[in-house]
Amino acid sequence: MTAREGRAYPAPARIPRRGGPGASRRRPGGGSGDRGRAFRPHPRPRAGSRARAPSGAGRAGRRAATGLVFNIQKFSVHDGGGIRTLVFLKGCPLRCPWCSNPESQAARPETGHDPSRCLGAAACGACAEACPRGLVRARGEALAFDRAGCDGCGACVRACPAGARILYGREMSASAVLDRVEEDAVFYQRSGGGLTLSGGEPLSQGGFALEILREAARRRVDASLETAGAVAEKTLLAAAGLTGSVIYDLKHWDPVILSRTVGGDGALPARNLRALRAALPEAVIRVRIPVIPGFNGSLPDLLKTASLVPEGLAPPELLPFHRLGEAKYALLGREPPFRAEPWPPDRFAGLVRAFREALGCGARPGAGGRPPGDGGAPPGRRGFQG
Ligand code: SF4
Ligand code: SF4
User: What CATH class has 57-108+169-368?
Assistant: First the structure.
């Protein structure tokens, strides 16, 4: 059964333009045809929010001296060759309901709160005292937090003695990012590794992403790019031209279903992949499909999605859906918009086997890569603390 035949995924609300006034939201919630899986709308940003847009969040491709980074993770061996440092940029034009990086989506700094680490308002309350906007208030033992007014200044995060406040999104320059990346230069030289730019959608901060990649090239650090391709073709080609390899996520063969589920132009990722292959025929492009129950997890859907991969590229890898990101929604005060059971290992292995046999080739399962949308660190440990 294809997703089109069997599932009624809800129409997503439109994604707010980064920092733009009057931003509207997609509504991924409300589906009825998915065996009880509930897609809920993402929280709507309040009008007049004082959250500031990052300076790197200008039009894709425009030079940006600084941008918003929400995590830098070292010693990855899954996202490009050798030992790599992953740099996660904040902001994404899509809203995949199964996203396990909810902290990556908004193109502004956000603050998370981890109650399991919090000492409590009565015993501590340092965050409430530190917030210059009075957004954190003690309510008995608990804390109340007005998230909409938060501009991510980080005062509460710095004041917290327990690491219970987490800042997602720190403004950095490309040079500062490369300084961090180059701390492990010795490992890149030995392993053939380097920097991998990820997100969110790293190219949603196109100007900043290009600055990072240019700086990497200037310092002779190998760079790789992870993208879902839902960006301007010009930005994608410019970025890919500065990298040694591109890891490209394809989600669904049907542009209508894709657009309805995650937002944006559903035909753009496949079109951009073709353009990328045509413009840079020598580029190393590794295509991955996140396999989501009820969305694209049938063999016919996977094969149709694989058919979008241009000739000459290796067949796509399949990455199994997981639930590792659910706890992070709670840190952000959000409900996960999608709930499903992860694939039973046997069933997923069977799906991969059937997929490979049908393609008559050696498409690899996702065992060698991070799960879809995984920013690579456990909940509460990503982002910046202090
Ligand atoms: S980051 Fe913390 S201190 Fe700064 S505005 Fe937000 S809640 Fe207040
Ligand atoms: S400063 Fe940290 S530990 Fe103290 S009340 Fe606030 S969140 Fe809890």
Answer: alpha beta
